Every structure is written in structure tokens, then in C-alpha cells.
UniProtKB/TrEMBL annotation:
It comes from Wohlfahrtiimonas larvae. The chain crosses the membrane at residues 7-28, 48-70, 82-102, 108-126, 147-169, 189-206, 218-240, 252-268. This is Probable membrane transporter protein. Belongs to the 4-toluene sulfonate uptake permease (TSUP) (TC 2.A.102) family. Pfam families: TauE. Its main location: membrane. The keyword Transmembrane applies. InterPro entries: TM_pro_TauE-like (IPR002781), TSUP/Inactive_protease-like (IPR051598).
Length: 269
């Protein structure tokens, strides 16, 4: 089972680079499936399986998004004019999202995760500006609007453990960015949420004296996280090499297809 976890960690690293969402939309279903199958007899872990998955996913994203951001920066794929105003707002939203997540039932997070997947797939395939960005649908940057958008992204990303990329990639596409640029900019925007939400998940578990046993620090499944971080690093290296061979139109079409695969996994677990 640990070998399977390592394999999907590599997949997570590849999709983090190519699509910006590997940190959450791969690791959350993966960890939830792993915990449900291997630790279903441990009551406290079973009760908080989604919270553990989301919190651990956020913690992993600190490392995977940092590495991927650095790789994209070296390639010149980052445009900080597009993402600068969002950083602080996403940090604030991340705190609130993590706090809400630890206060609700685990099943609520799972079904809201599935609902958000469905909404995103429909948004990418039906709404103009994602598959083929055109000048008439390109959105202009507004610091005030970005502040509100950033808080919303932070709340949803920390609550569901998706890293924010599921909203920032479509947002950047509608600002005229290519899929390569959009996926690249999703990575540094993941960092503020990942850091603040990880701290909140850790502090809340300490405050509530929750002890999940060996290999856990608060809600963070450190044993699984270390394994996924190492394997994701390998995946990031592979993804950087793959990106140069992926045409923009194929890149854009593959995005909702991969989300559909994740949706099926979350329904079946």
C-alpha cells in the first residue's frame, strides 16, 4: 500500500507542474482512500478522515508548490503582476477555511469536495474563456476585486485541501494566460493558503487535545506526508520535462478530464 502511495505521489508532482492542482485534487482522494482502507478500524482516524486528508494535503503543498514555483520561476513562466494582490487575501482566507473544516462533519467535506469538482468541470467546459481565451472575454485586474476573490479562494482551498489552483487556473486563463502560465502561477498562490491552514490545523488539534497515534502531529499525517513529498519531488522533475511537449489546446482539454477522474474516485471510495 505504501508503494501505491509513492506512485500516486509521483502523479501528484506531475499534475502539480502541469495543472497546478496535484497537491489537492490528487492527494486528498488518495489519502482519504488510504486512511479509509487501512485505518477504518481506528475510530478517531475514521471519524476525522477527511480533515486529516485535507490538513496533510495542505502541509504537503508547502513543499511541492515551493519546488514547482522555483522550477517555473527558472523557466520564466511567472507573472507577478497577475498574482501579487491575491497573496495576503488568500492567506487570510486559508485561516478561516481550515477553522471551518475542523468544526464540521467529515462527510460534509467529502460531499462538498465532490460538489465543487462538478461545478469546476462545468465551469471549465461550458463558460467562455477557459478552453480558448479570446480578447473579448479577458478579465482586467482589479486590486479590490482580487482582495475579495483571494479570501474566497483561501477559504475554499483550505476547507477542501485543494490549494486554490482549481480557482486560480481558470482565473488566469480568463486573464489571457496560457495553460502553462496559468498552472505555473497557481503554485506560488498555493503557498500562503498551505502555510496558514497547516498552522491552524496543527494548533486546533493541540487545543482540542486530539491524538491520532503514531505518525501523526495533530491532524497532519506526517508519515504519509514525508513519503508523498519525496515522491512528489520526483514527479515535479518529470512534469517540468513533459510541459514543453504539451500544446496549449491539449493542455486545456486535459484539465477537466483529469478532474472527472478524481470525481469518479471520490464517488467510489
Amino acid at each position: 500500500m505504501l508503494l501505491l502511495l509513492s506512485f500516486f505521489g509521483i502523479i501528484s508532482g506531475i499534475t502539480t507542474v502541469l495543472f497546478g492542482f496535484g497537491g489537492g485534487f490528487v492527494t486528498v482522494p488518495l489519502l482519504y482512500s488510504y486512511l479509509s482502507l487501512t485505518m477504518h478500524d481506528q475510530g478517531l482516524i475514521s471519524e476525522f478522515a477527511m480533515q486529516i486528508s485535507v490538513a496533510t494535503s495542505a502541509f504537503i503543498m508547502i513543499f511541492s508548490a515551493s519546488l514547482s514555483s522555483y522550477q517555473h520561476h527558472k523557466k520564466g513562466n511567472l507573472n507577478f503582476d497577475h498574482i501579487g494582490p491575491l497573496f495576503i487575501a488568500i492567506s487570510i482566507g486559508g485561516c478561516f477555511g481550515a477553522l471551518i473544516a475542523v468544526l464540521v462533519d467529515s462527510d460534509w467535506i467529502r460531499w462538498l469536495f465532490i460538489l465543487y469538482l462538478v461545478i469546476t468541470i462545468i465551469d471549465c467546459t461550458v463558460r467562455k474563456g477557459f478552453m480558448n481565451p479570446k480578447a473579448e472575454v479577458i478579465q482586467k485586474i482589479s486590486p479590490q476585486r482580487d482582495g475579495v476573490i483571494g479570501v474566497v479562494i483561501g477559504v475554499v482551498a483550505a476547507f477542501l485541501g485543494v490549494g486554490g489552483s482549481i480557482m486560480t487556473v481558470p482565473l488566469m486563463r480568463r486573464r489571457g494566460a496560457s495553460m502553462q502560465e496559468s498552472a505555473a502561477m497557481a503554485n506560488p498562490l498555493t503557498l500562503p493558503m498551505a502555510i496558514t491552514s497547516s498552522v491552524v490545523y496543527w494548533l486546533y488539534a493541540i487545543h482540542d487535545q486530539l491524538n491520532f497515534g503514531e505518525g501523526f502531529i495533530g491532524f497532519l499525517y506526517i508519515k504519509g506526508a514525508i513519503l508523498l513529498i519525496i515522491s512528489a519531488w520526483i514527479g515535479v522533475k518529470i512534469g517540468i520535462r513533459m510541459m514543453q511537449y504539451l500544446p496549449d489546446h491539449v493542455h486545456a482539454k486535459a484539465y477537466p478530464v483529469l478532474l472527472m477522474i478524481v470525481l469518479v474516485v471520490m464517488f467510489c471510495v
